[in-house]
Specification:
By secondary structure, the protein is α/β, with parallel strands linked by helices. The protein has 25 helices and 18 strands.
Length: 663
């Protein structure tokens, strides 16, 4: 599929759009000329037209979305825009694109999500004719989906507000490729995936998220470039917003992950589909049950602590195979037998897809247990569970690339004429060396666009002078006292961000009865609901961990203080972090300064970036970690942060809020 598309109506030049008196100044929103926005737009357009790579750090408030969207629309060839999350993707499509259309007229833009976000009409109709549903709740959810299918234009599950985030019915009806019939499906022309691809082929800009982009790239790599592999169309360029997340997302999709739940779902889907087609014979039934039972035995034997959640390197796979190899071989044989049974099913169109899916699981299991790739770390993870919740526990067997730079250099930077990376947090001490090395981006132009916020006036960074080291037993007690004092001064209106879930919960519980403000705790409600309650509750305080460090936008006085407990270093015992540090060490490098410090700098910049989101915002940042002032690497953090006014005096914090109240 070519990336060249029919010429769109003429669009204004960048200067005619962004400059004073241009189209943007005539919008209904408050306008202020941002020199950095026009500078970034020019750099993006030049990179796209000259087929060059570009990396841009654009400070918060630059307006980077418009600075890359207009050049992408003007290119005349298809451009993929990839965002960090589905939420940001939807904000781009449902907010930023309509705003542009209000100034420029209709634009050819579409958005795409992963196949499991879309309804499969073929599966829906099959269940309608032969319903295989468990209980009244599943029947009610199926009926709601069936009614919605009659009117939806997209088939995107996000349209159904009443459907719980986790429900068993959707997984039986979604359009993932495992059992897809492709062009032989009787509903192919009306298929939501077909329609999504059709819209993408007619669009100038296709908006996706990083997870979909790299899942698609990995599928195309495995398929050896087969034309029908993946769902994303060809493109002349890719623009990655929130590009600081790329290494972690790419690592997960170029790796392999198998869980006990995958085997349960495989057996369940085979039984459900073949029963609905009256093709579930005794051989298939016993083979599916054998896979289910042997998978349970295999995962129960994996050497991971059973007491709760955790991650650990899979040490001694060879020893495990020597002692528990019979369980592994038994599971492989069960999968092989199931493939054979599915091979004999001739009357069901979906059977070949189910057989390929079974074979894929078997191949992944063999790689995870037998491969010896020096650039791969093999590890185990357990989520959920704990005392009394064993049935909800999920165990993962994982393989993750230690270094994705060569993969990305070959599959991304060599394959696309122009790649644009942008984020508010890409530099360390003003340079891009860390992110370029981690991503394999060797030949690229660079641009730093400072924020137009007046950080020295709008923000105060308070560094308490007498805090113990975070590893000291006294740290938590002192942290509680200081957080209480700061929250009393700020009258709540704060995010308290932690690097440890346990630390967050302990401090929350201690302060719950000591402060007169509403305290909200991550995990007590969905993230979206917590943010909505925070915005709508005067003087609220939100306690959160990693998911609240980025992608959260609360403007105005509701968020006037951000408190961070410690420098966000990655846990060195984490199997992937440990493997990456060892790889740097083996080549003569310093893993702490080359990997841990730069990664922590970018994360800290993200966390502090929650505070100042507009020219009107004012607030105080607090970092309780004394290592910033006592260790020589603290200078790297301070030189990487925006030009906040810095103080060690709590009286300055009081004065800041008094001034803010008076104004």
């Amino acid at each position: 599929m070519s990336s060249v598309i029919p010429q769109a109506p003429a669009l204004p030049s960048l200067y005619d759009f962004f400059a004073p008196g241009g189209r943007l100044s005539r919008s209904s929103l408050p306008y202020e000329f941002r020199k950095g926005q026009l500078e970034m737009a020019k750099a993006v357009e030049r990179a796209l037209t000259e087929q060059r790579h570009l990396i841009v750090e654009a400070g918060t408030g630059t307006g980077k979305t418009l600075a890359y969207l207009l050049p992408a629309l003007r290119l005349g060839q298809r451009v993929i825009v990839s965002t960090g999350t589905k939420n940001l993707q939807e904000q781009l499509y449902f907010k930023d694109v309509p705003f542009l259309e209000s100034l420029l007229g209709p634009l050819r833009v579409c958005y795409m999500k992963g196949r499991n976000n879309y309804l499969c009409r073929h599966k829906l109709y099959a269940l309608r004719d032969q319903p295989v549903l468990n209980g009244l709740q599943e029947i009610e959810q199926y009926q709601a989906i069936a009614e919605w299918e009659k009117t939806t234009q997209t088939g995107d599950r996000a349209e159904i507000d009443s459907l719980p985030e986790t429900n068993s019915v959707w997984s039986k009806l979604d359009a993932r490729s495992d059992a897809c019939l492709g062009q032989s499906c009787p509903n192919f022309e009306r298929c939501f995936i077909t329609e999504m691809r059709r819209k993408a082929a007619e669009s100038d800009v296709v908006i996706v998220n990083h997870h979909l982009f790299f899942a698609d790239l990995a599928i195309k790599q495995q398929a050896g470039g087969a034309p029908d592999a993946g769902v994303l169309p060809d493109a002349a360029a890719v623009i990655f917003d929130e590009a600081h997340e790329l290494e972690d997302v790419a690592s997960s999709y170029f790796g392999i992950s198998l869980s006990n739940v995958r085997f349960e779902e495989l057996a369940r889907d085979i039984e459900t589909l073949l029963r609905s087609k009256h093709a579930l014979n005794d051989g298939l039934k016993s083979s599916a049950e054998m896979v289910r039972e042997r998978a349970r035995m295999f995962f129960a034997a994996l050497p991971l602590d059973l007491s709760g959640e955790g991650r650990a390197k899979f040490e001694g796979r060879e020893e495990f195979l020597e002692t528990q190899g019979d369980l592994y071989i038994a599971l492989l044989n069960a999968l092989h037998r199931l493939e054979g049974e599915l091979e004999r099913v001739r009357s069901v169109e979906e059977a070949p897809g189910l057989r390929r899916r079974t074979g894929g699981v078997r191949a992944q299991l063999q790689f995870l247990m037998e491969a010896n790739d020096r650039n791969t770390v093999f590890w185990l993870e357990r989520r959920g569970g704990g005392r009394g919740r064993e049935s909800s526990r999920t165990t993962y067997l994982q393989a993750t690339p230690i270094d994705v730079s060569d993969l990305l250099a070959d599959l991304l930077f060599e394959n696309f004429p122009s790649i644009i990376l942008t984020s508010a947090t890409l530099t360390v001490q003003g340079g891009f060396a860390h992110i370029r090395k981690r991503l394999g981006m060797s030949d690229a132009r660079e641009l730093v666009v400072p924020s137009h916020f007046r950080y020295s006036d709008q923000a105060l960074l308070y560094l308490p002078p007498e805090m113990p080291d975070p590893r000291d037993p006294q740290f938590q007690e002192e942290a509680i006292k200081l957080i209480r004092r700061v929250l009393e001064i700020s009258q709540g209106r704060a995010f308290c961000l932690f690097t440890s879930y346990q630390q967050m919960r302990d401090i929350y519980e201690r302060l719950l009865m000591e402060l007169p403000f509403t305290l909200l705790l991550q995990g007590n409600a969905p993230r979206k609901a917590l943010l909505e309650e925070f915005r709508n509750t005067p003087n609220a305080v939100l306690f959160g961990t990693s998911s609240f460090w980025q992608g959260v936008d609360v403007q105005g006085e509701a968020l006037s203080c951000v408190i961070i407990d410690r420098l966000p270093f990655a846990v060195p015992s984490d199997p992937v972090v440990e493997a990456r540090m060892r790889a740097i060490e083996e080549t003569g490098g310093n893993p702490f300064f080359e990997y841990q410090v730069p990664s922590a700098v970018i994360t800290l910049k993200q966390g502090f970036g929650r505070l100042i989101r507009s020219l009107e915002d004012r607030g105080v940042l607090v970092l309780l970690d004394s290592r910033l002032q006592r260790q020589r690497y603290g200078r790297i953090f301070l030189e990487s942060l925006p030009p906040y006014r810095v103080t060690q005096n709590i009286m300055d914090v009081e004065a800041f809020f008094q001034t803010n109240t008076a104004s």
